[in-house]
Amino acid sequence: MIIDSLLAKQKLTRYRLAIEAGIPHATLNDICSGKTKIERCSAETVYKLAKVLGVPMELLTEDGIRAAERERTYEHGLPGYLQHDLDAFKIGVKNKSPILDCLWGELYGMNQYIDFTNCPRMVDRAYNGANGKKIAVEYEGRQYMLKFPPSGDGKLTGLSYTNSCVSEHIASSVFNLLGVKAQETMLGTFMVGGKQKVVCACLDFTEGGKQFYDFCSIKNTVLDSDSNGSGTELDDILEAIEKQQYVDPIRLKEHFWEMFAADALLGNFDRHNGNWGFLYDPKDKKREIAPIYDCGSCLLPQADDTVMQEVLNDKDALNLRIYRFPTSAIKLHGNKINYYDFLSSGEYEDCSQAVSRIYARADMTEIRALIDRVPYISDLQKEFYKRYISARLELLLRPVCEMTEQADAPELRI
User: Fold this and answer.
1) Is the pLDDT assigned to residue 273 strictly greater than 80?
2) Residue 79: its pLDDT value, please?
3) What is the DSSP string of 14-51?
4) Contact predicate 214/230, CB 8 Å
5) ∠ CA(90), CA(91), CA(97), 5° rounding?
6) Long-range contact pairs involving 107-116 (C-beta distance under 8 Å, separation at least 24)
7) What are phi and psi of 293, to 5 degrees?
8) Phi first, then psi: what are they for 266, rounded to 5°?
């Protein structure tokens, strides 16, 4: 971290820097640990830190750090798109990203339109779920689940088939950008009855003999609870998280709230107990939280071109889809949670802290670049997804983050 390097050179401690800059010690620790991006801090905070450290404000930001690093290497003056992909790959290597192969492909232009029609079918694998047909195929030696778009018939949309496959891919990719591990996905095509359909290929994370258990199953192991496994009442879910003995309850609760915060950002209306869970590896008897999956209900998958145009051009239409719907599948006192009302209440501190973490990690530059690279979708769709995520970030998550910062700030004494 650049601040720690500057502190070491000047023989200062974090505590002394916090005191001299007049900012909370906890805030400085969050910045230095990477929990809070300095770009998310106020200009006043950055100015105070830069003044004490005797450096320009720009040097403390990620862009400034990268620019300084590039001046010392041959990465100077590259085209913007190439620099972005190179930075993404280097960060992936540093953080041991699970999608490093995808980042490599983006860097070297290997992403291409994939036709899965002739891939070997794996008839010994089958998948349940109501959101579209699913088959198992082998692609480049790996096992994938192909998800097909469900029909738009009987739904409030002008689409012949919904955009759930696109939603699945973008949402899963955004989860990974947010530091919440999700399934690896890619879009491709498959010929069915002479018609080409866009499908989402999801890497099967149970390959290698791992066993998957959804939260519904684990929730059923909690014997001293009156709720069943499928019940989505929030307090019952939190009780099961505390009492289950499958993984560390503290880590699981943190994971649950970060998943909830990311779902709020992406407008997921169908995160129930049957579509998140755990993996067990019988070889080494290891248990772990499974990657996030089943994200096809994010990003308004039934929105057709008319709705997208309306959202882009009409502020009221956008706000309606942020403040009123979609709602969460999780319930509070018998009613589905309205994301805005719930988050703004601040009633659950663990949730507010998770929202702050997700907001700090959300980089709209990265998210926009990701969406720009998505194949098979129109420019209208790309603009819609970018605007929708950006608006939810600023109108749903940012106020919670600011409220949490104010609550954590030390009280001024007169």
Assistant:
1) yes
2) 47
3) HHHHHHHHT--HHHHHHHHHTSS-GGGS-HHHHHHHHH
4) no
5) 110
6) 111/373, 111/375, 113/188, 113/189, 113/375, 113/376, 114/139, 114/186, 114/187, 114/188, 114/189, 114/201, 115/188, 115/189, 115/190, 115/191, 116/144, 116/146, 116/188, 116/189, 116/190, 116/199, 116/201
7) -150, 180
8) -95, 0
Task: Report the 10 Å Cβ neighbour count for 68.
Answer: 12
19 or 300, which is more confident? Answer: 300
Residue 239 burial (CB < 10 Å; 0-12/13-18/19+)?
middle
Tell me which residue has tokens 């994301």: 339
Q: What is the pLDDT of residue 70?
A: 47
- Give the Å distances, CA to CA, from 393 to 32, 264, 295, 350: 23, 9, 18, 18
- φ/ψ bin of 82: left (φ > 0), alpha (ψ from -120 to 50), beta (otherwise): alpha
**55-103 pLDDT, tens digit each:** 777 677 655 555 544 444 444 455 454 566 667 767 777 777 766 666 6
pLDDT on residue 73: 46
C-alpha 241/C-alpha 111 separation (Å) is 39
Average pLDDT over residues 344-352: 94
